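ok so I'm stuck.
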Amino acid sequence: MREGRRKVGISNRKKNTKIRGFYNRLRLSQKILFSFVFAAIIPLIIIQLFFYKFNAEYINDKVNQLMVNNLSQTVDRVNLSIDVYTNILYQIYVDDEIINNVRIMSDDKEIKKAVAYNNINNRLKQYISAVDGIRCLSIICNDGQTVTYDLKTGSSIDNIWRDYDDLRDTQPFLNAKDKAGMAITPTMKIDDKGEDVYVFHISKQIFNFNHLEDGAIATAVMTIDERVLDSLCNVDEGNEGALEYSFTFILDKDKNVIAYPEQIFAGLKLDPNIGIERFVTVTGLLKNKKIAINSFQDDATGWSFYNVFDLDYMLKDIKHSQKIFSLSGAITLLFSSILIVYTIKKIVESVNKIIKGIQLVKTGDFDTVVIVETQDEIGEIANHFNEMTKEVKQLIFQVMEATQLQKDAEIKALEAQINPHFLYNTLDTINWMAIEKEEYAISTMLRNLGVILRYSINESNKEVPIWQEKDWLEKYISLYRMRYNDGFECICNIDSTIQNVKIHKLILQPFVENSILHGFKGMEQGGMIRIDAMRVEGEDSISILIEDNGKGMTSEVVQLYNNRDTAIIDDGRSIGMHNAFSRIDMYYGKAAKWGISSVEGMGTVITLKLPIVDWGSIDENRNS
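replied:
not stuck anymore, here's the structure
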């Protein structure tokens, strides 16, 4: 057994030796080309294929998720609309005037019946105009008498039911019979004077509440245009040609088509053996397209909502990006191949020149011997390099000496720089000179300026308690108030519960400066800045309001700052609001939010919402 393992080990070593020997015998150009193919081209192709597949699956999942969310919103819209219609029907259900007149039509004399008929018709006129989409309202008595008002014809006689002898035989009436609640009848096609009309119905039995033991006395039927549902399903598809890419339709639990963009298919009952995808194909929508279908079951109505979309259209951006990526990869590979071949050629030429040059300048002794096993051009260079080590060592010494001289020069240059503490000490000296001359206003400004400089220069990105930012900001504002002869006031309120919450330094300064320089421009007196900071109830975040009564901003500027993408664009030329929003976005990411409202001539309100990253320490020394 051991002998067998020994033979296998010897065999493997021989193979490895052969591979190394083969590689060592290759010319330098062949080694570089071999390495380039296996280290760059092949991995790049594999990564590109993996990236394409991963992106396609990711985008497909996101599109499906988006479509399901849209379906959920569509269901909410439809349910809300159905609730509006059922609420009107419920009002009819409890309308005493309608109930009394239905009783009169069933029991009293013909002349009273005519009056009752007219009274019911007038009430239906009032209800039918309450909501758009209602085609007609009908009250069907148990004895077959019917009062119908048709909104389209404006008549109770010439209505959508004109071709029906007895409305008690219609499906809306039958569906509501012996049912306590509202009954929804699926979309049906009705011949309206040679024109196909597609409507669905909501019906409800009416009772005489004084004599409930008599049972239902009539049935109220609301007839609604199918296009109401279609417009709710495809509310986002208003652009011309949108149905070429996506649409939504509704089926009930019995596979009846409740609403469909092509109205001729509304009211159809699907064959259980025909799948949804086959049905969509037959209707001609998204013809010859690669479609994807998402569904959502609504428990309230029992309806199924289907969203169909052109998968290629939804993924067109990623496919376009992939094409660009593939083309860029191909161009890169081609360029890299040309470059590597050119580089190999130059390296070989350069090495040959070096070899010839070394052969011409061989002088001196060499203490270091470099042994290289390779048999390519580098191996030849190594053989000559062993004879030139002494000269190389001298060159290294010279380089080290030159480097040391350069470092000495740099140290002297650093020593010549002005120390920031020199500025603080100088300001302090000037401050005492002002005090000696009893220039106390100047002394206050110098002292505040020193604090401001020290605060802003030292660790400008550091997080500090909000009370410390407030103290610095008040000193900063005091300098401006002196500069503008107290032409404005500033009130700063910090909720005691967030005094120690840490925020980044100099976050609020650009907004205050903007109010002073731009908001109060042209105002000599009466300016007011108010800063309020508080915790957002129920959240680990704080809300900061910066309000002024200045000249305000134009709607274009407000829109610019309220758009996150444009607000954070910083041209780097000034420390303004762009810079502040950019820093907020950089520090806190999407967890931070802001909004600006402004009225020209009245003032501006800036609202910042920042997450609480660090509650700080309640023992922190406020005098530090």
